[in-house]
Amino acid sequence: MSGVRKFKVKSRLSTLALGSGGITAREALKRADAAIESVRGDCLVMIDERIAEIERRFAPTVPGRASDRFEDLYDLSSGIIDVALGLPESGIDHAARALCDLVDLSLERGVRDWEAVDVHIVTLRLLRGSGQAFSQAQRDAVLGGLKKVMLKRVGDPTTGLA
Question: With the C-alpha atoms ordered 99, 32, 130, 68, is the resulting torsion angle positive or negative?
């Protein structure tokens, strides 16, 4: 088989990426990390402000918290999700989403389970402070606990039973 000739064909994608003005995936990821790092401080400030507002209005020690607008708890939690890229690998985005789910289900069922809300608030504070130091298994356990709290306290939305 001495007459076999091999051709190396460059794909159009590799030509675009490596040709004039293109960048490699590694370089794109490096730039994305740098961009995230540049806004990280602002994201942390916004997370802290939202958690502080949640605690100021909805913590267990707040007299009359039940008369506050419950939908605002959803808005404040979703605001944490919006800026959670400032705390990657902390689980805070998932905890905030769990609080949004709790508020949604509570509004749907006409239930205000303040003990469940309290657990979610404490978890947000915990993950803000230590979530990045936790192992994935530890974060999964914490977040799994939030789901169990919601299902036990408010009910399983898939069955319609409380």
Answer: negative
132, 89 Cβ separation under 8 angstroms: yes
Residues in a beta bridge with 153 = none
Phi first, then psi: what are they for 5, rounded to 5°? -115, 135
On whether the CB atoms of residues 97 and 149 are closer than 8 A, the answer is no
DSSP assignment string, 80-108: HHHTGGGSTTSSHHHHHHHHHHHHHHHHH
Tens of pLDDT, residues 51-99: 999 999 999 999 989 999 999 999 999 999 989 988 888 999 999 999 9
Q: Please state the pTM of the whole predicted model.
A: 0.76
Helix, strand, or coil here: 4? coil
Q: Which residues contact 85 (CB under 8 A, 6 or more apart)?
A: 36, 39, 40, 43
Distance CA 105, CA 109 (A): 6
